[in-house]
Design goal:
alpha+beta; Heat Shock Protein 90; 9 helices; binds adenosine-5'-diphosphate; binds magnesium ion
């Protein structure tokens, strides 16, 4: 399992515990060294003390080497040092020795009056020893050149066990500290994660239709972007659900009437035996089916356009040349234009006019406007399409026809779904074309204006677009 797919708690513990243990071990290593040094200094100091008391008790008054009460002294010292203690007092010519004669000596020259420490083994155990040489006053056997060597050694187990005790104590103290830190961390995490738990609980207990925004009250700052993203997502989902509901409402509303009319015609046809009458009914049914097909395809087009408002359609945005778009449409609609004997005039701009947008959507918008102009103007009518730049950032496509035009009321209500105007009443149509145009233009930061015709006296439709930058 990936480390970061674990819970926050375990991630922190997995990172913290080894880090703390490592820190503790390093600190222990360092303090072990320090501790040894300090304890050695302290123990060495008392070893020198023992050496000095031996030194004071040495006498050469008799001409030979003698020591007063050496053993009581050492027994007492042994007790305080908590280890075996050995000593040796010798003349450096080796002729007289008191104490542990075979105590090993360091192999170096000894300066008089100076204490030397060294580690060695004695009787099979490691010992720490101090040694000092001094002049004999009065001289030994009357010989001035003979010095007295005083040496004390003690077993090191006393100091080792002391060091170990100290180290264990600091290990326990550190472990206690780590445990306390862990508890604090876990409690902290539990508190910090509580809002997330609340969020999870809230989301899980919601019903499927509950798409209200999640409250950000009491959320930690780090979680806020996540909650906001969830809310944006739910908002989009709500809008999409609304659009789908609208489509269903539209579809059922609009198809119910033509279907029941078709059903009535069918019933009538089934009862009818006169072939002439039957043919009339079938022709009228054919028209009805055509109307239903047209309505359905327009409704689907509108749903598609609305849906594209917030789907990936915008990723298809390119710079679209409006002139090219008009040319393509004219080619497409040419059969209808010729059949209705329409005199079509297209006035193109001197420089290309480009709009940033989705080509097929812009084409759909223009197609609806051009289709209306062609269909609502009489046979042998006139349609003029012109493209002009309004200023540095906007351009317009104007479609004017010599048809009946639209009343003031019809123009104001244009773009309302399923609303058909005066001219549309007697011709097939769904009343969705201008609604589609309005939606598409909104998406492209443009707008549609309907005006009474100027040159041709019919309807003048102006589609105003924002040009793509850099033109
Ligand atoms: N060029 C035009 N001339 C006259 N009336 C028009 C023109 N364009 C649109 N209309 C009116 O606006 C109404 C709505 O148009 P539209 O939304 O395209 O739906 P449809 O064409 O299916 O009726 C039409 O029914 C018609 O009355
Ligand atoms: Mg139309």
């Amino acid at each position: 399992m990936n480390l970061f797919s674990r819970s926050l708690k375990s991630i922190l513990l997995w990172l913290l515990v080894p880090a703390l243990l490592l820190t503790m071990l390093t600190a222990l290593g360092l303090s072990n060294k320090d501790l040894r040094k300090q304890i050695t200094v302290a123990y060495d100091r008392s070893l020198v003390g023992a050496l000095n008391s031996l030194n004071h008790n040495i006498s050469t008054q008799s001409g030979g080497l003698s020591l007063e009460q050496p053993y009581t002294l050492l027994e007492f010292y042994e007790l305080t040092a908590n280890a075996n203690v050995f000593f040796k007092i010798a003349a450096d010519d080796g002729l007289s020795v008191i104490g542990n004669a075979d105590l090993p000596m360091p192999d170096m020259a000894l300066e008089s009056g100076k204490a030397y420490f060294f580690d060695t083994d004695y009787l099979g155990e490691p010992v720490r020893s101090v040694v000092m040489a001094r002049e004999a006053v009065p001289p030994l056997y009357g010989d001035n050149s003979v010095r007295i060597i005083i040496q004390v050694a003690e077993g090191i187990e006393g100091r080792e066990s002391f060091i170990n005790r100290m180290l264990w104590r600091s290990v326990w103290r550190d472990l206690l500290l780590i445990t306390v830190v862990m508890v604090i961390v876990i409690v902290g995490i539990v508190f910090a994660v509580r809002p997330l738990e609340r969020l999870r609980h809230e989301m899980r207990s919601r019903t499927i239709n509950d798409l209200r925004a999640v409250s950000t009250d009491g959320m930690p700052k780090e979680v806020m972007p996540l909650v906001n993203a969830i809310n944006v997502h739910m908002q989009r989902y709500t809008e999409q659900a609304d659009r789908q509901r609208q489509f269903l409402d539209d579809a059922s509303h609009q198809l119910k009437t033509p279907l029941s009319v078709l059903k009535m015609q069918l019933d009538y046809a089934l009862r009818e035996s006169d072939p002439q009458e039957l043919r009339e009914v079938l022709l009228s049914m054919n028209e009805g089916v055509d109307r239903a097909i047209r309505m359905t395809s327009q409704m689907l087009a509108l749903a598609r356009v609305r849906d594209s408002l917030d789907t990936q359609v915008w990723q298809q945005s390119v710079s679209v040349d409006l002139g090219e778009l008009v040319n393509g449409l004219v080619r497409d609609l040419w059969p209808v234009i010729r059949e209705r004997r329409i005199d079509l005039e297209v006035i193109r701009p001197e420089t290309p006019l480009c709009v940033l947008g989705v080509s097929w959507l812009l084409q759909e918008a223009l197609r609806n406007v051009l289709d209306n102009a062609i269909r609502y103007c009489p046979r042998d009518g006139k349609v003029a399409v012109s493209l002009d730049r309004l200023n540095a950032t906007t351009a317009q496509v104007v479609v004017e026809d010599s048809g009946p035009g639209m009343t003031e009321e019809d123009r104001q209500k244009a773009g309302t779904r399923f609303r058909r105007g005066k001219a549309g009443k007697h011709l097939p149509g769904a009343g969705l074309g201008l609604a589609i145009v309005t939606t598409i233009l909104q998406m492209h930061q443009g707008h549609m204006l309907l005006e009474p015709g100027q040159a041709l006296k019919g309807l003048r439709v102006r589609l105003v677009f924002t040009l793509s930058s850099g033109q």
